[in-house]
Please model this.
Amino acid sequence: MNISLVLQMAADTFPDRVALTHHGVHYSYGRLHASAQAAARRIVDSGAAYVSYLGESNPATVIALFGAAMAGKPFVPLNYRLTVPETNRLIERLFPVFLIADEDKVANIPEGAAPTLMTPRQLLDATEGDDAGEWDVPQDEEGIAVQLFTSGTTGEPKAALLRNQNLLGYVLGTVDFASADEDEATLVSVPPYHIAGISAILSSVYAMRRVVQLPQFSPAEWLRQTSEQSVTNAFVVPTMLTRIIAHIDEAGEPPALPALRALAFGGGKMPVPVVERALALFPNVAFTNAYGLTETSSTIALLGPDDHREAHNHPDPTIARRLDSVGKPLPTVEVEIRGEDGSTLGPNALGEVFVRGPQVSGEYQGRKLTDEEGWFPTRDSGFIDDHGFLFLAGRIDDVIVRGGENISPGEVEAVLLSHDSVEDVAVVGVPSVEWGETLAAAIVPKAAANMTEDVLRDLVRARLRSSRVPEHVRFVEALPYNEMGKLLRRQVKTFFD
Model:
């Protein structure tokens, strides 16, 4: 099978139903399918090896994704926030490429770097009403459907490969076909170069839930679109939800969003106070925390709506702390925790998270990271409690080794965030003559907060062992995050240089 099956089934079932809304313009499933077929013919005729997209979310993004699949070529969305030299180095790696780029990006692409170069508007115009006739879609489950470049913070970006079988494994294993009512709509505000953007398109089309594209996020625009487009479902990253709540609190009263039924979040660590505030602001909304990675074709564990509501303000601390978990693994995947020696650990033991299942790729260009039994090392540190809830403690590389003792920054951050005057916090390891490495905490205080370093140290000392007490504390205006809400710990360390 091929991921284009997702769109084909939708178009065959309800061709006239609205599939996508962009700036108020509607596109039906039938129109998207016909345009994707027309795009596939152009892609094949071009002789391109890849189909790449450089720009914000647009109907052309969806057409390019499915058109590439129909042509049997990998779809490679690029981060439009990269510098011009960074972008052009990636384009060079895709030669010969069929490239769709926003108008403001075209002038920066070297002549000849992309044998076929179009803007989204040109692709939409070229494929509208263009009859491709009968199209023979390659049915190669092992063919590469999507290629995503990593951020490349420690070198040149690596190309993560997601095959048709991986993406279909996720969609078919988590979504029922045509399960959405015609009035349902999902607001997609994550960029197309992120796995969450890809999975949102595939799962929404398969469920036949209308996609409302929000190319540029702002709290005010997110709330406006949610209201005006009668959005029922949405996905946000932690920084987005934090900004939405801050905007609402500043306005003084919650907005009227009568259609909103479900709000999912993921892509980074969500502070528990933010979740608690969101639950209070939207008592009738079903919240879901989704944990996944690029290499696993999106979500592998979920903390569902019932778990959120049960844990919220629960008197039992073992249940209340589930708000800080990512829930339980999906039925279609297996998750286990392993120690440094590779042994499987029991409940509540901290180790590395491993996962396997049909949606798990664990593959980069020229390198496969899964073992012979299909297990993929996520490089995330965590543990599974007695009831099967998965808790994350940060990246394995973020573990602080103080005097030979491994310390997860996440456990210290959770304690510091429990203080009423702390808005945000990041704990990192910094060099120490005595211990080799010691703890340093960057604290974002709330407005008009009145607290001292000693108060925060005493809080940690009272909850955890003395070895967890930060030796260095800095008060800062904000912490550095990328656009998907991931904390940039390397930049945090520069606060203590």
Summary: The first helix runs from residue 4 to 13. The mean pLDDT is 93. Residues 215 and 396 are 33 Å apart (CA to CA). The domain at 399-496 is CATH 3.30.300.30 (GMP Synthetase; Chain A, domain 3).
